[in-house]
Design a protein that fits this description.
Number of strands: 4
Bound molecules: zinc ion
Largest sheet: 4 strands, antiparallel
Shape: flat
Mean pLDDT: 81
Length: about 60
């Protein structure tokens, strides 16, 4: 299985990340699945040019 070493914010250290079985059809459509999970704690990250992770933390000024 392919794996990458990245810093895991949950583990607070460098960890091995692996790709879980894609259930979103990325592989079927020929694209690379952007989903990776920490092999240690299971934290998921999205990687890839077309995919941008946006956290819904927009605060509207009153
Ligand atoms: Zn981790
Ligand atoms: Zn996928």
């Amino acid at each position: 299985m392919e794996s990458q070493l990245w810093h895991c914010s949950d583990c607070g250290d460098e960890r091995e990340f692996v790709q879980p079985t894609c259930s979103d059809g990325h592989a079927e459509s020929g694209a690379e699945c952007p989903e990776w999970i920490c092999a240690e704690c299971g934290t998921a990250v999205l990687v890839g040019g077309a995919h941008v992770v946006v956290l819904p933390q927009v605060r509207r000024a009153a």
